[in-house]
Amino acid sequence: FPVTIRVCIFIFVIILYFFSKLPTPLVFQNHAKTFNDTISPLFRIFSCNSIAFMVGQYINIYIFSKLQFLLRGRWFIIRSVFSTFLGDTLTFALSLVGDFSGLLSEHTIFVLVVDELLIMYAMAILLAFPGSIIVSFFKKTEPDFNMSVNFNPFK
């Protein structure tokens, strides 16, 4: 998501978190536990998912670009599948462990991560072929690729 959307979601999550800590009106007393169980972990989930997404996708882009340099812009399928495997594995693992640690057993979290990754790996392999066709079309119009990308996020 763009930064502005993430900031808006963050503000919304903070407001919901503080609302969940207010006393519940007597009319809604029957639903207070359900509301608090749903809203209370949102801040942790949002934080874990945001960090996991930034770290995993940075690794994905970094590996993809380095492989583009090493392979001289060829072998798009290998570059996309390999970088997706590494970057998204890190994203899913960090996200699911952060979201569910303390709530589910380690075995259950492991099963969740493996299930998500198997689906993601299958989709990455299947969609790499149409992606390579699109990339070959764009290479005809713009054959040059950037060999001097600076990956330092602090510059």
Would you kindly provide a written description of the structure presented here, covering whatever features stand out?
This protein has 155 residues and is mostly helical. The chain is 75% helix and 0% strand. It has five helices and no strands.
What is the fold's blueprint, element by element?
Layout: H1 3-21, H2 32-39, H3 42-70, H4 76-100, H5 106-141
Helix pairs in contact: 1-3, 3-4, 4-5
Query: What ranges have pLDDT less than 50 throughout 5 or more consecutive residues?
Result: none
The profile of the biggest β sheet is: none
**What is the gyration radius calculated from CA atoms?**
21 Å
The counted number of beta strands is 0
What's the average pLDDT? 83
Helix count, DSSP H or I runs of 4 or more residues: 5
Helix-and-strand structural type:
mainly alpha
N-to-C series of helices and strands: HHHHH
Helix-residue proportion:
over 70%
In percent terms, what proportion of residues is strand?
under 5%
What is the first-to-last residue Cα distance? Answer: 21 Å
| Morphology | elongated
Could you write a compact summary of the structure shown?
75% of the residues lie in helices and 0% in strands. It has five helices and no strands. The chain is elongated.
